[in-house]
Specification:
Layout: H1 8-18, E1 34-38, E2 41-44, E3 49-51, H2 65-77, H3 87-97, E4 106-110, H4 113-128, E5 132-136, H5 145-148, H6 152-155, E6 165-168, H7 185-202, E7 207-213, H8 228-238, E8 242-246, E9 273-276, E10 287-291, H9 293-301, H10 314-329, H11 332-350, E11 357-360, E12 372-377, E13 387-391
Parallel strand pairs: 5-6, 5-7, 7-8, 8-9
Antiparallel strand pairs: 1-2, 2-3, 4-10, 9-10, 11-12, 12-13
Helix pairs in contact: 2-10, 3-10, 4-9, 7-8
C-alpha cells in the first residue's frame, strides 16, 4: 500500500480498528490528517496550512534542512549500536557536557524521556541503596510502570500511591500553600520537603531521591520560587538521597535565558542527575541521562552491564549534534526570550478583558526572559480549573526564517 494514498475516512477507520483506543487523537471528534510539515506549519491532505502550537518535540522547526541532511548523511554511511567505537557518541556527549555544570560529566543515551527517567531511578537506587522517592504533587514523569508509580497525575487514576512514594506540595505561588505575598516562599516550600523527610525517617524508611521537573508542566507550568531547589537538595542530600532534575520538557534553551531550566535557581545549584529528552532530536527518538562520576561509578560497580540497543547510535547522535548547531547558529535561546516577552505583553493586554485569565507567567526580566507564558483559567473556588499553555520556543520566530 503506497504511503499517503488513503482517504482521511479510510485512515480513520483503519486507526480505530488497528490502534489501541487509549492512544487518543488530537481533535478526536474531527481529527486533522497531517501529511506534511515545514518550520512551524503543518499541512493536511488538502494542503491546508496550520500553525503548530501543539507539537512539543520539533524544537528547531519541522523538517529543518540541517537536521534532515545530518540524519540522511549518517544513515547513508552507518547506523549501528553503541557497542561499536564511534566518534558521534563521544562528540555529542562532549557538546552536552559543555552546557552543564562540570560535575555532570557522565552520560547514558536512551530513546525517550520515559527511558531516561527510569534509568535515573535505577542510578539513584544503586548509588544510595535506598528505595523511597519524593515527588511533587500533580507530577508526570513518563509511561513506564516505574514512572507511573512516581507520577501522582497518573497513579491516582490507577492503583494508587505506593508506600515508597511520598508526595510534596507543588511550590505554586499562585494557588499553593505559600503565595507571592509570602516573604520567602522558596524556603517555606522547601521546608515542606524537610518535614516529609522527617516523617519518612520516623517510619523507618530512607530517601533515595527527590525527583522533580525543573518547571513542573502537567502541574500547571509552575515557575519554582527562588531558593527552592537549593534548599531541597540540601535536605535530600543530608538524608542520603540525590536530587534528580527532569528536563525532558524544559531543556535545550527553551527557557530563553539559560540552556537548562534548573539553572534558573542560580549558579550555586546543581542536581545530581539530569534527564533530557523531547527536544533533543527534533522529533527523532533521542534522550539522555547526565550524572556524576560517583553515581555512575556506583552503577558500574553492581557488575551488571547497561546496554541500550538504539541509545546513542550514530544517526541519533548526528541528529543531536545538528540540533545543537541550529540552536546556536539561529540564536533560538534569544528567540525564545524575545517571543516569550512579546507573548506576555499580548496576554497581559487580554487579561483585564477576560475573567477566565487568572495568571500570565513569564520569568522575570531580571533573568532575561523565558520561553514560557501561561494563561490560567480560574474557577469560583480558586482551587481547580483548566489551563491554556503557550510556549514560545524556537518553533515560533517573530520573523519567518528563510529556510521554510
Amino acid at each position: 500500500m503506497a504511503l499517503g494514498k488513503l482517504r482521511k475516512e479510510e485512515t480513520l477507520v483503519l486507526r480505530k480498528k488497528l490502534i489501541g483506543q487509549s492512544c487518543r487523537l488530537f481533535y478526536s471528534e474531527d481529527p486533522v490528517k497531517i501529511v506534511k510539515a515545514r518550520g512551524q506549519f503543518l499541512f493536511d491532505e488538502n494542503g491546508k496550512r496550520y500553525l503548530d502550537c501543539i507539537s512539543n518535540v520539533q524544537h528547531v522547526g519541522h523538517c529543518h534542512p540541517s537536521i534532515t541532511k545530518a540524519a540522511s548523511a549518517q544513515m547513508d554511511l552507518l547506523n549501528t549500536n553503541a557497542r561499536f567505537l564511534h566518534d558521534n557518541i563521544v562528540m555529542y556527549a562532549d557538546r552536552l557536557a559543555a552546557t552543564l555544570p562540570e560535575k555532570l560529566c557522565v552520560f547514558y543515551f536512551v530513546n525517550s524521556g520515559s527511558e531516561a527517567n527510569d534509568l535515573a531511578l535505577r542510578l539513584a537506587h544503586q548509588y544510595t541503596q535506598h528505595e523511597d522517592v519524593i515527588v511533587l504533587d500533580h507530577a508526570y514523569h513518563g509511561h513506564l510502570m516505574s514512572l507511573i508509580d512516581i507520577s501522582p497525575y497518573k497513579f491516582r487514576k490507577l492503583a494508587g500511591q505506593k508506600e515508597w512514594v511520598h508526595v510534596a506540595p507543588l511550590p505554586d505561588t499562585y494557588r499553593g500553600l505559600y503565595r507571592e505575598d509570602h516573604p520567602n516562599p522558596g524556603q517555606a516550600y522547601a521546608d515542606t520537603v524537610k518535614d516529609l523527610i522527617e516523617e519518612v525517617h520516623r517510619d523507618g524508611r530512607k530517601i533515595s531521591a527527590f525527583f522533580a521537573e525543573s518547571l513542573p508542566s502537567v502541574g500547571g507550568q509552575i515557575i519554582l520560587p527562588q531558593g527552592y531547589s537549593t534548599k531541597v537538595a540540601e535536605y535530600v542530600r543530608s538524608a542520603g538521597g540525590v536530587f534528580v532534575a527532569d528536563e525532558v520538557q524544559t531543556g535545550f534553551g527553551r527557557v530563553g535565558s539559560h540552556f537548562w531550566a534548573f539553572q534558573l535557581q542560580g549558579q550555586g545549584f546543581c542536581p545530581d542527575i539530569v534527564t533530557m529528552g523531547k527536544p533533543m532530536g527534533n522529533g527523532h527518538p533521542l534522550a539522555c541521562v547526565a550524572t556524576t562520576e560517583e553515581i555512575a561509578g556506583a552503577f558500574t560497580a553492581n557488575g551488571v552491564e547497561y546496554f541500550n540497543t538504539f541509545g546513542g547510535n550514530p544517526v541519533s547522535c548526528a541528529i543531536g549534534l545538528a540540533v545543537l548547531d541550529v540552536i546556536e547558529e539561529e540564536d533560538l535561546k534569544g528567540n525564545a526570550t524575545r517571543v516569550g516577552a512579546h507573548l506576555k505583553d499580548l496576554l497581559i493586554k487580554l487579561q483585564p478583558q477576560h475573567q477566565i485569565i487568572g495568571d500570565v507567567r513569564l520569568l522575570s526580566r531580571d533573568l532575561n526572559g523565558t520561553s514560557h507564558g501561561l494563561m490560567r483559567r480560574v474557577t469560583n473556588d480558586d482551587n481547580h480549573g483548566s489551563w491554556l499553555q503557550t510556549e514560545s520556543r524556537g518553533l515560533l520566530p517573530q520573523k519567518q526564517q528563510r529556510w521554510w
